[in-house]
Design a protein that fits this description.
Blueprint: E1 3-14, E2 17-28, E3 32-36, H1 43-51, E4 58-63, E5 66-67, H2 73-79, E6 81-84, H3 96-103, H4 112-117, H5 119-139, H6 155-167, E7 173-177, H7 185-200, E8 205-209, H8 213-219, E9 222-227, E10 230-235, H9 237-241, H10 244-251
Parallel strand pairs: 3-8, 3-9, 6-7, 7-8
Antiparallel strand pairs: 1-2, 1-4, 4-5, 9-10
Helix pairs in contact: 3-6
The chain binds adenosine-5'-triphosphate.
Adenosine-5'-triphosphate binds near residues 42 and 43.
């Protein structure tokens, strides 16, 4: 076991709502890990705690053994944690290329002023920046749409660019919040292929929130199941499929696991 992320007894409360209650699990380096659970179970809240948008009421989050619970989101990005959002967080009027370049902005050290003063350093950074963005464009097969405004693209492609924005940050750990929501089966197959490639070719650890349990069972090495903010299952897809608490939680949704 080589955990990249350890979630220890994390709780999160909004007034009277316990979004997360004493949740613990770990994610191994290089695996595809899924977080599943019925609507309102606390999945997005958990990703928000990992990326730093929410601050847990109690508990601990270790990334490569380092406590990150009090760290600002941009510092977590610099450590190698990137996030693609459920509701696409792109600039609709800007091109695919510009959105990906902007995605990397937080990693740039030389701002506009230093860019003017230290041409060499800024120029080197710009070259590195472009190289990474071109790599992502090639990897996600976005070449033909690189100059098209994101807002005019079909939804499935916008989701792919949203994943690309996170990938452009060169993460070690990528958090994907429902990257296949609203997609047809063919589009889901394409996204599944990219997720597998991220894991196999780029060696990125993937955390996936996904409602399509077929996709989850096919892709995941391990799964954690949340229900009403509590962890009710944690294990391999085969273990999760046989977990009576998980089956019970999903019967309410008329879903066959
Ligand atoms: N910012 C917030 N303020 C108040 N309550 C919140 C906030 N964010 C989440 N919650 C509550 O926390 C609980 C868990 O919500 P969360 O969005 O994490 O669930 P989820 O499993 O991602 O759901 P879904 O599958 O529908 O996206 C819900 O009761 C939700 O209303």
């Amino acid at each position: 076991m080589d955990p990249i992320l350890e979630i220890k007894n994390v709780s999160l409360q909004f007034g009277g709502v316990k979004a997360l209650e004493d949740v613990s699990y770990h994610i191994n380096r290089g695996e595809i890990f899924s977080l599943i659970g019925p609507n309102g179970a606390g999945k997005t809240s958990m990703l928000n705690c990992i990326s730093g948008l929410y601050h847990p009421t109690s508990g601990s989050i270790l990334y490569n053994g380092q406590e990150i619970i009090n760290m600002k989101p941009y510092n977590r990005t610099a450590l190698g944690i990137a996030r693609a959002f459920q509701n696409i967080a792109l600039f609709a009027h800007m091109s695919v290329l510009d959105n990906l370049k902007l995605g990397r902005h937080s990693l740039m050290n030389s701002g506009p002023l230093s860019g003017g003063l230290y041409v060499g350093k800024a120029a080197r950074e710009e070259i590195e920046h472009r190289k990474k963005v071109e790599e992502v464009i090639e990897f996600l097969e976005l070449q033909d749409i690189r100059h098209i405004p994101v807002g005019t693209l079909p939804y499935g492609l916008q989701k792919r660019v949203e994943v690309g924005r996170a990938l452009a940050l060169s993460p070690d750990l990528i958090l994907l919040d429902e990257p296949m929501a609203g997609m047809n089966n063919a589009e889901k197959d394409i996204m599944s292929h990219f997720i597998l490639e991220m894991h196999e070719v780029m060696d990125i650890t993937v955390v996936l929130i996904e409602h399509d349990l077929g996709v989850v069972m096919n892709l995941s090495d391990h799964i954690a199941v949340l229900d009403f903010g509590r962890r009710i299952g944690f294990g391999t897809p085969a273990e999760i499929q046989e977990n009576p608490d998980v089956i019970k939680a999903y019967i309410g949704e008329e879903t066959v696991i």
